Amino acid sequence: MAGNLFPGAPAHHHRSQQCVMAAPPPAPAGQNGVTICQLLARNSHPPVLCDRAITDASPRTVQDHISEFHPEHLEGQRTNCEWRLNTGHACGEGLSAAQLHKHICNVHLRMFACQCPNCQQMFSRPDALKRHLANKNNECGA
Ligand SMILES: [Zn+2]
Ligand SMILES: [Zn+2]
Ligand SMILES: [Zn+2]
Fold it and tell me: What domains can you pick out in the chain, each with its CATH number?
């Protein structure tokens, strides 16, 4: 589905442009390190999936990607997350536009996910695991 789906944006996005902006290291041979952006374009009907690769996804590279390809998501103070979930629907969570990239890294890319070494429960962030381990009311409390 190539073509000019994003009026106002260049018809073709060249890999080299992305590399110049974020200067990411080359992606490893496997799929590790490459994230496919699931953001839905806001001003298109029906919604069009971004589907671009974000190399070496991190809060920084995701933020760069949003600024470059999804500036309409950053208009105004508040935004709604348009990340497409497995259900096919957009996330829809309302948040501060400045927090959108962190939300995506946290919630959708599970970038900071960690697992309790004792009970194998998953937590979205290290501080949640810390609280879990510090909680004397569960069997994992130190
Ligand atoms: Zn995108
Ligand atoms: Zn979301
Ligand atoms: Zn535990």
Answer: 15-23+30-111 (no CATH), 112-142 (3.30.160)
